[in-house]
C-alpha cells in the first residue's frame, strides 16, 4: 500500500510538473505573440432586439500559434491575467479595436457601430485605465460614444467606493461601461444602485437554459425589469436558439448576441455586413 501511495504521488507530481511546464511555455510564447502577429481580433455582432439591426460588436481576442495551434481565450486570457501580461496585451487590443472601428462605414441609421472591449480585473489595478482610454480615443479619433467597456461583475464587487470612483472617471471620458457575466457573481441587483453602470450583460449560462428552466427564466425576467427600472440597458449573450431570442425580446431585453444571430467574424466581414445593410 505504501508503494502504491508513493507511485501515486509520483504520478500526480509528474502530471503536475507537466502542467506547470506547459503553462510556463505558454506564457513565454504569449509574451511575443502580438509582435509575431499570432493574435488577432474577432468581432461578434450585437443586435437591437426591437428591429434586429446590428448596432455594435464585441471584440474577442484570438490566438493562433504555429505549433500549439488555436488556443482558446478561456485558457490564454487566464495565463495572461495571472502572469500580468494582460496589462501589456489589454491596451493593445483596445487601441487596435478603436483603430479598426473608426474606419467602418456608418450603420443602418447613420450611427457608427459601437465596439465593446473586454477589460480584465487586473487592468483596473493602478488606476491607469481612464487615461489609457482617453489617449486611445484621442489618438484614433473614435467618438467616445462608440466605445463600450465590459467589466466583470466580480471585478467591481468588494470595494464599491473604489469601483464607483473608477466608473466615474471612465464616464468622464464619454465611454459606456457594461457589467459582463451578470448574475454569476451573485452580487445581487442591489449593487446596481451603488455602481453606476450603463448596461448589464446577462450571462450566457442563464440564456442557455431559459426555455426549459423556470428559475433561469424568472431570473432573466427579473434582471431585465430591475435594470430597466434603474435606466440600465440589458444585453443578453449566448443566444443559440430562436426561442431564446423570442423570450428575451418579449421581455424587453434591449440587445442580443449569440451564435443564432452571428458567430464572431473578421473586421472585413463586419464591413461587409454593414455594406449589406444588416
Ligand atoms: P465573454 O466576455 O463572456 O465573451 C463571450 C464568449 O461567448 C466568447 O467566447 C464568445 O465567442 C462566446 N459566445 C458567443 N456567442 C455564443 C453562443 O451563442 N453560445 C456560446 N456557448 N458561446 C457564445 P470566447 O471568444 O471564447 O471568449 C471567452 C472569454 O475570454 C470571454 O468571455 C472573455 O472573458 C475572455 N476574452 C476574450 N477576449 C478578451 C480580451 O480581449 N480581453 C479580455 N480581458 N478577455 C477576453
Ligand atoms: Ca464579454
Ligand atoms: Ca460574458
Ligand atoms: Ca439552470
Automatic annotation (TrEMBL):
It comes from the Bacteria. Residues 23-278 form the EAL domain. It is found in: Cell membrane. This is Diguanylate cyclase (GGDEF)-like protein.
Amino acid at each position: 500500500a505504501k508503494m502504491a501511495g508513493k507511485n501515486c504521488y509520483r504520478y500526480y507530481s509528474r502530471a503536475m510538473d507537466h502542467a506547470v511546464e506547459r503553462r510556463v511555455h505558454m506564457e513565454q510564447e504569449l509574451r511575443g505573440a502580438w509582435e509575431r502577429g499570432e493574435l488577432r481580433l474577432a468581432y461578434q455582432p450585437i443586435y437591437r432586439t426591437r428591429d434586429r439591426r446590428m448596432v455594435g460588436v464585441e471584440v474577442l481576442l484570438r490566438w493562433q500559434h504555429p505549433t500549439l495551434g488555436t488556443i482558446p481565450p478561456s485558457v490564454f486570457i487566464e495565463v495572461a491575467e495571472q502572469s500580468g501580461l494582460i496589462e501589456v496585451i489589454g491596451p493593445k487590443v483596445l487601441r487596435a479595436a478603436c483603430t479598426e472601428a473608426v474606419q467602418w462605414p456608418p450603420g443602418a441609421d447613420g450611427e457608427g457601430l459601437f465596439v465593446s472591449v473586454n477589460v480584465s480585473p487586473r487592468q483596473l489595478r493602478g488606476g491607469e485605465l481612464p487615461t489609457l482610454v482617453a489617449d486611445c480615443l484621442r489618438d484614433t479619433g473614435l467618438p467616445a460614444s462608440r466605445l463600450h467597456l465590459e467589466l466583470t461583475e466580480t471585478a467591481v464587487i468588494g470595494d464599491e467606493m473604489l469601483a464607483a470612483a473608477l466608473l466615474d472617471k471612465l464616464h468622464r471620458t464619454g465611454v459606456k461601461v457594461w457589467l459582463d457575466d451578470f448574475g454569476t457573481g451573485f452580487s445581487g441587483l442591489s449593487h446596481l444602485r451603488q455602481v453606476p453602470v450603463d448596461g448589464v450583460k446577462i450571462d450566457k449560462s442563464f440564456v442557455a437554459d431559459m426555455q426549459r428552466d423556470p428559475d433561469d427564466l424568472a431570473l432573466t425576467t427579473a434582471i431585465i425589469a430591475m435594470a430597466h427600472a434603474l435606466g440600465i440597458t440589458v444585453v443578453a449573450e449566448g443566444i443559440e436558439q430562436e426561442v431564446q431570442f423570442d423570450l428575451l425580446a418579449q421581455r424587453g431585453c434591449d440587445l442580443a448576441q449569440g451564435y443564432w444571430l452571428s458567430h464572431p467574424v473578421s473586421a472585413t466581414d463586419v464591413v461587409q455586413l454593414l455594406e449589406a445593410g444588416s
